[in-house]
């Protein structure tokens, strides 16, 4: 199984980004999927989870109302739309299902004026 995150970048506070997670070697429709973030030296932080059907979604309090997790099971993809970004959202973002698979390299999000 390989997870590849993309879509990160450098943005100013208040701007938006959409991250993508592409999976190979696994059919994502069979699994709930989550986004996590971590900066070097810190614990990995859970951000959001979407149920395998796409119906149920839960978010960390720090991102609730600003981030939206979604998925396209036909494309085997998971997304994280991030709005109203804050400097404290700066991190490397990863997708996985509770460490079920090897972690990808993540995608760096930097929010800075």
Provide a quick synopsis of the model.
The protein is an all-beta fold and 113 residues long. It has no helices and 10 strands.
The number of E-state strands comes to 10
Mean pLDDT metric: 95
Morphology call: globular
Largest sheet, order of strands side by side? 2-10-9-4-5-6
Helical residue percent? under 10%
End-to-end CA span: 37 Å
Q: Number of helix segments?
A: 0
Give helix and strand order, one letter per element, not per position: EEEEEEEEEE
Q: Which structural class should the secondary elements be placed in? A: mainly beta
**Major sheet description:** 6 strands, mixed
Integer-rounded radius of gyration: 13 Å
Uncertain parts: none
Strand content: over 45%
Layout of helices and strands, plus pairs?
Elements: E1 2-6, E2 9-11, E3 17-24, E4 33-38, E5 45-50, E6 57-59, E7 67-72, E8 77-82, E9 91-96, E10 107-111
Would you write up a description of this structure?
The protein is mainly β and 113 residues long. It contains no helices and ten strands. The strands form two sheets. A six-stranded mixed beta sheet has the order 2-10-9-4-5-6, with no helix packed on it. Strands 1-3-8-7 form a four-stranded antiparallel beta sheet, with no helix packed on it. The model has no long low-confidence stretch (mean pLDDT 95).
Highlighted features:
0% helix; 113 residues; mainly beta; 48% strand
């Amino acid at each position: 199984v390989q997870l590849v995150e993309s879509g990160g970048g450098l943005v100013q506070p208040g701007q938006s980004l959409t991250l993508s997670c592409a999976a190979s070697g696994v059919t994502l429709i069979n699994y709930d999927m989550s986004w996590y973030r971590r900066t070097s030296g810190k614990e990995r932080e859970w951000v959001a989870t979407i149920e395998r059907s796409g119906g149920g979604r839960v978010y960390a309090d720090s991102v609730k109302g600003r981030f939206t997790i979604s998925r396209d099971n036909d494309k085997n993809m998971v997304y994280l739309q991030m709005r109203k970004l804050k400097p404290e959202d700066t991190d490397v973002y990863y997708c996985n299902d509770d460490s079920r698979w090897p972690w990808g390299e993540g995608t760096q999000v930097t929010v800075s004026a």
